[in-house]
Amino acid sequence: MLTRTPVFTAGGSDFDPTDPHLFTTDRHLEVWRQARSRHPVAWQESADGGFWSVTGHRAGSELLRRPTEFTSTLGMRLGSSPQAVRAAAGRMLVVADGTAHRRLRTAHSAWFTPRALAGLRADLLRLLDARLAELLDRGTPFDVVGELTALLPAWALLGMMGVPAADWDHLVGLTLRAFDDDERGPEAAAARTEAHTEVFLYFGDLLDRRRAAPGDDMVSALAQAVVDGRPLTDEEIVLNCDGLMNGGLETTPHAASGAMLAFARHPDTWRRLRHTPELADRAVEEILRYTSPPMHAMRTATVDATLGDATIRAGDRVVVWFPSCNADDTVFAEPGRFLLDRWPNPHLGFGGGPHYCIGAALARLELRCLLETLARRVEAFEVAGAVVRQPSNFLNGLRRLDLALTPAGTAAGADPLTGPRHSGTPR
């Protein structure tokens, strides 16, 4: 039997990234730093059998660009149920490759272009302004995650999907339970499965209603879509609605709350952003790099292949750790600093290759609207209580963040971030 080398040793024998609670402290950041300098692709022993751990930006980017050799169809995250993956493979964007992936992406992509999303901007700004005014009028610290940032993607995505506003809280709650990594064991797994089932049933019912009475929404469009000469199946639509809920509702709140924590810890950075609106788009990219909401993506080798200095065997799992890649000092100068004008900024906050996040433009719009609203309303942030990280090896962010916000006064002096988009930044 061939020996898998190099072996991941930076964290010691008790460093097991399949344990979601490992990421509730900062221990993994130093472990990854050591791994990047020694072997950015190395075999990681774990409770579930081991995998190749990719911590360097170059190798991570390369892995994501090689879907023929490293497939997503056998699962794209650690801890996935093999049965659930088999049921979704080829029918759900995140676990489809090749022709199947292109077909599904074509059906969805028209809804996620900057032009298609332009009309959403005014609604997001209005909803954010009203919510922030309410929180500021209260005059007390509040949990940013639960009372502000978690609402932003719900307003955007659920409206696009045609979910009635009366159902938003219920559906968001189901999604959070379906992807909750906090507890392990059969009871927790059963609870997640039950929540997923309820999400599937909800969208199955919504799809039936939209087929009978189409509206101007994404589910109605998917119900009528014909790609490569055939319509999408009910299973494809429902599975991808579930996938959009996970990707859309879970990641942007982590970027947004992480940014507000960074502004609280670095007040000069917030003052500079308020006074320099032309930095807004680059600030969004730096937020995505600095917070790195997706924790990992997994692929499985279809053939024997080389990645970095590792020889990977067919059937081996390979996991790229996005926060580590986004802190690679061979790519990002002073990666530990939150630099508003960092450019270029080739972060992997949206993944890469064919699976580059389909909702990237929506996430950028949500973050831009948040910055603009905060700039109008907030002069300063202060940590006022709990800063609790979410126990997860799939999502990187905060479960709770208590902040006190100082309302912007008439003498704050800053023009809010409402100027024209900076022509040198990505859309």
From TrEMBL:
Signal peptide (UniProt feature, chain positions):
none
Q: Classify the source by domain of life.
A: Bacteria
Metabolic or biological pathway: Antibiotic biosynthesis; mycinamicin biosynthesis
> Which UniProt key words apply to this protein?
Antibiotic biosynthesis, Heme, Iron, Metal-binding, Monooxygenase, NADP, Oxidoreductase
Q: Which GO terms describe its molecular function?
A: cholest-4-en-3-one 26-monooxygenase activity; heme binding; iron ion binding; steroid hydroxylase activity
Q: Is Chloroplast found in the keyword set? A: no
Q: Known InterPro entries for this protein?
A: Cyt_P450, Cyt_P450_B, Cyt_P450_CS, Cyt_P450_sf
Please give one Pfam family short name: p450
Annotated protein name in UniProt: Cytochrome P450
Q: Which organism is it from?
A: Micromonospora sagamiensis
